[in-house]
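INFO  loader      accepted 1 record
INFO  loader      residues=192
INFO  predictor   begin
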Amino acid sequence: MQTEDLDLQVQQQLIVDFKTDRESFKTVYEFYYEMIFRYLLKRTINSEVAYDLTADTFIKAFENFHKFKWVGISIKVWLYRITINGLKNQRRKPTTTILTTEMEGQESLVADVKEELAEIDKTLFGDEELSKLSDAMATLKPEHQNVISLYYFTGLSQKEIAETINTSEGAVKASIHRAMTNLRQLLSPNFI
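INFO  predictor   done
INFO  writer      dumping tokens
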């Protein structure tokens, strides 16, 4: 798993370069894409949703990169903030899909795509223990889900998590402890 970050001087230079050359954002995209996608894949356990949310994250980041000011918070932390907000917004949306007129008569194609995505998900997440963990995490408070997934799925430090969710390191540590206690109660003692 990629947990490193771009060198701070490189990040600062990208911010400066973006003002005159929007192509410089390509470096941000290429460096952080997999990191963000993997985080979302683990959070959503659905490749289609993870791809969509990753795309949304980078679209929003590109549209707002000119506003990014260097105040000691890395681009990685800023991207995770956008990602978490996108994930929160996605969870507020209804989960039903409306069959549009373009899709009418294409039900077999839609079914094939859904089956293919389900197969990808099964391949990626076929492990029964991971499924149990996902179900248990879904019962946690959203703030505990965020902290646990940021800590274990991304490799962010407690300090970086605190910067990402705008809280103290102590609050992050306490949230991790509470969430892990809850997960231990929900899962078999041999799992965690």
